[in-house]
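quick one, 296 residues, struct below
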Amino acid sequence: MIMRIGIDLGGSKIELLALDPQGQERYRKRVPTPRGDYGATLKTVTGLVGECEETLGTKGTVGVGIPGALSLATGRVKNSNSTCLIGRPFKQDLEQALGREVRMANDANCFALSEATDGAGKGANVVFGVILGTGVGGGVVVNGRVLTGPNAIAGEWGHNPLPLPRGDDLPLPECYCGRQGCVEAYLSGPALARDAGAGIDAPQIVARAAQGDARCEAALARYEERLARALASVVNVLDPDVIVLGGGLSNVDRLYANVPRLWLPYVFSDQVSTRLARHVHGDSSGVRGAAWLWSS
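---
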């Protein structure tokens, strides 16, 4: 029995999922991502695959979602917020370590594919999948097919400037990509934590805001308004049927009520029919999309 193995390589965690031929989950494991260590990252991914196959007693195809893209010119990783991957032949190295072909795609593309297939975007013509986590990514699925583009950057809204910066958006924050004021520099989990201060992470900010903490409430309100502006620019260009949120911050319930209300003044239309939807298959739904890279 041939298994389909998917791997989601994130900035803070690496997750593996194995699906049987009927698409049912057979194995899942999540481990921390080695920070800034390419060799350790490669070893961790290889070890996860080996452990999975030993447990299930069978080998599988391997698909990987990465926080970046493979350069069509060199085959090496580019545009990754896991900077230790940049310029590395990760696909080739992983294939050599595993002794088989590996299919690799942007993690947000994998997430969008998963949710467009049988998740929150099922049946929609145009789905924009958003990752709000250690980094900020996006993927586009049109009529069930991932849109990649000739530069392999379709959906990369996180490295556009935050639209219409206001006084409380200044000074423009530095982004790992070398630019200032990128959407990712405002809307990632670490960005929210920096904005709130006090050395607390995003889940703590949400919890404290719900308990009436004024500083955390203000940080969340700024986050929602910035997310609304950023997504409005996507609606103006792509006009998707649905925007599906993934990544750790997609679990913040209040986003789904507040952001569509806040994006109204920025969308160039007399009405906005685009839905903002929560993932169906979990905040790391992209691991399923990675497994499905072998389904076509």
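Residues 73 and 151 are 9 Å apart (CA to CA).
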